[in-house]
Amino acid sequence: MGHMRKDIKISCQKRLNRIEGQVRGLSKMVDEDRYCIDIITQISAVRAALRRVEEEVLKDHVAHCVEHAITSGDKGDQRKKIAELMTVIGRVDR
After folding, report:
1. Which residues form a coiled coil (predicted)?
2. What is the pTM (predicted TM-score) of this model?
3. Could you identify which of 8, 33, 80, 87 might form a hypothetical disulfide with 60, taking C-beta atoms 3.0 to 4.6 angstroms apart as the criterion?
């Protein structure tokens, strides 16, 4: 376990490539001394896009890794996956 489903991986990679372009655009905006509010608006857009990737990966993790631990009947693996999930949810900056 631990590998993303192929369709999710492809989707996330496409999103991350777009985000990478957005970040390069942000760097150019700063270099060009663009209006601060425009830069902040773009930063907000990048953060929102990253949150969507995060949500997609988290959903896949629950549907794939956590579900596998639950159906396996392995109590230790179940506790581990739930603890990991709670830790990462606690770190999510919302």
Report:
1. none
2. 0.81
3. 8
Backbone φ, ψ for residue 72 (5° rounding) = -70, -25
Contact 35, 26 (CB under 8 A): no
At 3, the pLDDT band (50, 70, 90 cuts) reads: confident
CA 91, CA 85: separation in Å to the nearest integer? 10
Chain centroid, CA 26 distance in Å: 20
Burial 51-73 (b: 16+ CB within 10 A, else e): eebeebbeebbeebbbeebeeee
Is residue 1 scored above 80 in pLDDT? no
